[in-house]
Amino acid sequence: MKKKRVRPQTLKGFQDNLPEEMIARQGVIDAIRGVYERFGFVPIDTPILEHFATLTGSAGAEVNKEIFTLETPEGEVAAMRFDLTVPFARVVSQYREQIKLPFRRYHIGPVFRADKPGPGRFRQFTQLDIDVAGARSLAADAEIIAVLCGGMRAAGMTDNDVPLFRIRISNRRLVDALLTGNDITEPERIKHTLRVIDKLQKVGIENVKMELASGRIDASGDPIPGVHLPDSVITAIAEFIAITGVDRLEVVKLLMEKLPASENTEEALADMRELAALLDALGISEAEAVFDPSLTRGLDYYTGPVFEVEVVGMKALGSLGGGGRYNELCNRFMGQQVPAVGASIGLERLMAALRGLEKIKFPRSTVKVCIATVGKVAARDVLKLAAELRGAGLNTLTYLGGKKNMAAQLSDADRYEVPVAVILGEEELQRGEVAVKDLIAGKRSRENIDDHDAYREAGRNAQVTVKREDMIGIVKSLLNNEPVPAQSE
User: Fold this and answer.
1) What is each CA distance from 462 to 157, 340, 354, 442, 446, in whole angstroms?
2) What is the distance between the alpha carbons of residues 184 and 290, in angstroms, rounded to a whole number?
3) What is the band of 483 on the pLDDT scale with cuts at 50, 70, 90?
4) What does the pLDDT look like over 206-260, one tens digit per residue?
5) Of 268, 353, 438, 442, which is least packed with CB atoms within 10 Å of its CB?
6) Neighbours of 214 (CB within 10 A)
7) pLDDT at res. 62
8) Does domain 19-46+81-184+242-356 fall into CATH 3.40.50.720?
9) How does pLDDT run across 184-207, given as a tens digit for each residue?
10) Predicted pLDDT of residue 444
């Protein structure tokens, strides 16, 4: 009987990353990891699967994310992590003896959300997280923002040192001062208001105003209940989120004019002034980070400063990441506050931005050297040569195909964009020599040459025969874009 073939396909909302994409992604990850470590963050990793209650709380109802759930062989209800922050809270709570606060960690890994896939939106995606637990000082918030700026720069989000990104910054305490100063004090009403304001980027100010009032009808015809705020409060909110300024301190000044006078207002504005001074001390320019009260992401979750990374001129892409201060980190596990601030960069969104801005290359491989042979050269001699090159730290490709002609052997080099070839022949092997060929220079020198003899001569000019003991130095010189040395005698 014929076996039924299985159709090769990915699940909906998931994607494969082939070599060119993976090499580019890894380059971006490595660049951002380097920034994280320069700021003193240390890596951790946690399981992809957690107890369901770990991710949702004991009631299982407080989380609004779509979670992949499953059962372990022991019958425990488990779930796939939907972010890296909740596992961090568990780690801080579980390892109280080993982890001393304040604690800076970074975590790079996949997370899973069972929501509706769309363009640039996947059910598995990679986050690059940083968090500081146990620090109340706004210096921690400023450093997180500085790390985000450094990560964006390292990933290539600049053009001649001009940032192609912008970090928008607001503060939950400002909104609290606005609402309590206008006699909106009931916790549930405040949360409802914050959730409505958080829709600003999606639905626009007019729909937000309607929802803050008696409610509205959405595009599908469903009624959305309103908060039933007074018109004066709705006007105050609209004016608050419309504030802009030429620099961070001007925004603080304009906020002072708009917010009701109160102790809450004074404390919130003092926070923003301090944060502005700290960002200046860290060298974060006004072009990189702006104070923007219209930023309303996660205000019902965050307890202090909030921030979001956007691409200049690419609003349709959405944010590349963001974060803020959340002082309820470990309440679920310890029943007590652990002040914390953190942020996350979404790798898929960042890759989309870099691709759209043409600020990233997609190499076909990481190979630097390939080996080709002329005549009868034993496989052991090829592998010995490859071991020498690899021992010197050079990524080296050996030809494993069946064809023995030079064109077939160097086809691997062309396919993988290998810059240098080491050619080993029978006679050269006896003399202790190899030929080293600059494939990139050779290809460039032959462009637009039609004459056969001239074409072959141009290729030879990019090749040099050297003593075996000089091979490593010559190869490294070529990889460093240094001139091809004169032909050895």
Assistant:
1) 35, 58, 34, 5, 10
2) 28
3) low
4) 999 999 999 898 888 889 999 999 999 999 999 999 999 999 999 999 999 999 9
5) 442
6) 11
7) 47
8) no
9) 889 889 889 888 888 888 888 999
10) 60
Structure tokens at 340: 């914390």
Residue 77, amino acid: V
Question: Phi-psi bin for 169: left (phi > 0), alpha (psi -120 to 50), beta?
Answer: beta
Q: What is the mean pLDDT of residues 291-300?
A: 84
Give the pair of three-digit tokens for residue 102.
């304040």
- Point out the least confidently predicted range of 6-15, 259-268, 310-319: 310-319
Q: What is the pLDDT of residues 462-473, one digit of tens each?
A: 789 999 999 999
| CATH number listed for the domain at residues 369-479 | 3.40.50.800
Rounded CA separation 459/443 (Å): 7
Q: What is the pLDDT of residue 338?
A: 92
- Has residue 458 got a pLDDT over 70? no
CB count in 10 Å sphere of residue 201: 16
* Burial annotation 449-485 (CB, 10 A radius, 16+ → b, else e): eeeeeeeeebbeebbbbbebeebbebbbbbeeeeebe
Q: So where are the chain's domains?
A: 19-46+81-184+242-356, 369-479
Place of tokens 């997280």: 129
Whether the per-residue pLDDT at 454 is higher than 50: the answer is: no
Q: Model-level pTM?
A: 0.89
